[in-house]
Amino acid sequence: MTEARKTMDEEVKIGEIIDDRMREEEAESLCRWAAARAGVIVVAPLLGTMSLVANEIYLIIKLGKVYGEEISEQAAVKNLNAIALQIAEQETQARQALLKDDAFIDRIWRAYGILTSAHMIGCDEFCDLLSLVRLGAAQ
């Protein structure tokens, strides 16, 4: 291989590395933007769940464009739906595993006891205990 050919190959590799780095930076920037926007949507409940879903669909489509893939809105919705189903399944499995643990069941019953007999309780403690009781009730 000639010296000129080697130099050209090295320049192409450097160009690919720069392109990949730029894509990664743009993708990271989009993810940060979407996370910040999702945070605002969650804090302002009037915007609702649909705004959060629309935000995620927009992010999927934009990330596809960054990597040179054209993703339709329908494909993004399917992708998001599949991810949500996987998360729901994993959450169900985790809940079932927790409810098999005697020590965790004891924590649920203690939380129930505190909630039914406490005269004064702080908001944070109430939320933590209620969360445990709701988990037990979902059994």
Can you write the helix and strand succession as a string? Answer: HHHHH
Query: How big is the Rg?
Result: 25 Å
- Principal-axes shape call: elongated
Helicity range of the residues? over 70%
Give the oligomeric state. single chain
User: pLDDT under 50 segments (min length 5)?
Assistant: none
- SS-based structural class? mainly alpha
Largest sheet: none
Helical segment count: 5
How many beta-strand segments? 0
Mean pLDDT, all residues: 81
Structure description:
With 139 residues, this protein is mainly alpha-helical. It has five helices and no strands. It has helices spanning 3-43, 48-66, 73-98, 102-117, 123-137. It is elongated and about 80 Å long. The model has no long low-confidence stretch (mean pLDDT 81).
Summarize it:
This protein is mainly α and 139 residues long. It is built from five helices and no strands. It has helices spanning 3-43, 48-66, 73-98, 102-117, 123-137.
Write a concise keyword list for the protein shown above.
139 residues, mainly alpha, 5 helices
Helix-strand layout with pairing:
Elements: H1 3-43, H2 48-66, H3 73-98, H4 102-117, H5 123-137
